[in-house]
């Protein structure tokens, strides 16, 4: 049991990219662990994309409005960009949290505390955006 988690913790995925049809049940669990953890980490990094794109779009919009009017005439586009970026980041974080929970769930019972902390950390952007959206719509 410990060899499966050590194989993926070190970053060496071995033959985790094999087709699931040719694998046995024990090897399939290893593939789920490796692929879910890698996918959750990549999606957690991808959560940074929408806010960065929204920020650059907002700066470009600000520059265009300042050049055209001398002041910012309408901030609706900037608010919309930020709101959509938050929702996109939350959805990526939700998928990453699901993959992280799936990879943590298949580990043997004394689960590493670092992996549990990693799962909680990956879900923080989702919880923050849900709080932001609820507060924006509520009050």
What is shown here, in short?
The protein is 77% helix and 0% strand. By secondary structure, it is an all-alpha fold.
Characteristics:
0% strand; 139 residues; mainly alpha
List the helices and strands and how they pair.
Elements: H1 2-9, H2 25-46, H3 49-69, H4 76-105, H5 113-138
Structural features, described:
The chain has helices spanning 2-9, 25-46, 49-69, 76-105, 113-138. It contains five helices and no strands. The model is unreliable at 1-21 (pLDDT under 50). It is elongated. The longest helix has 30 residues, at 76-105. It has one domain (2-138). With 139 residues, the chain is mostly helical.
Spatial gap, N to C terminus: 50 Å
Structural class: mainly alpha
The domain count comes to 1
Number of strands: 0
Low-confidence stretches: 1-21
Percent strand equals under 5%
H/E order of the elements? Answer: HHHHH
The level of helicity is over 70%
On the 0-100 scale, what is the average pLDDT? Answer: 78
> Quick one: overall form?
elongated
């Amino acid at each position: 049991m410990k060899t499966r988690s050590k194989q993926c913790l070190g970053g060496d995925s071995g033959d985790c990219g094999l087709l699931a049809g040719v694998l046995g049940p024990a090897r399939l669990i290893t593939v789920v662990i490796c692929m879910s953890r890698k996918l959750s980490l990549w999606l957690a990094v991808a959560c940074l994309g929408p806010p960065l794109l929204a920020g650059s779009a907002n700066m470009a919009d600000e520059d265009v409005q300042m050049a055209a009017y001398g002041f910012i005439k309408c901030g609706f586009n900037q608010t919309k960009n930020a709101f959509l970026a938050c929702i996109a980041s939350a959805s990526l974080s939700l998928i990453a949290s699901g993959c992280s929970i799936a990879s943590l769930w298949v580990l043997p019972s004394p689960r590493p505390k670092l992996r549990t902390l990693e799962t909680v950390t990956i879900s923080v952007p989702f919880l923050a955006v849900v709080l932001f959206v609820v507060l924006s719509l509520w009050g």
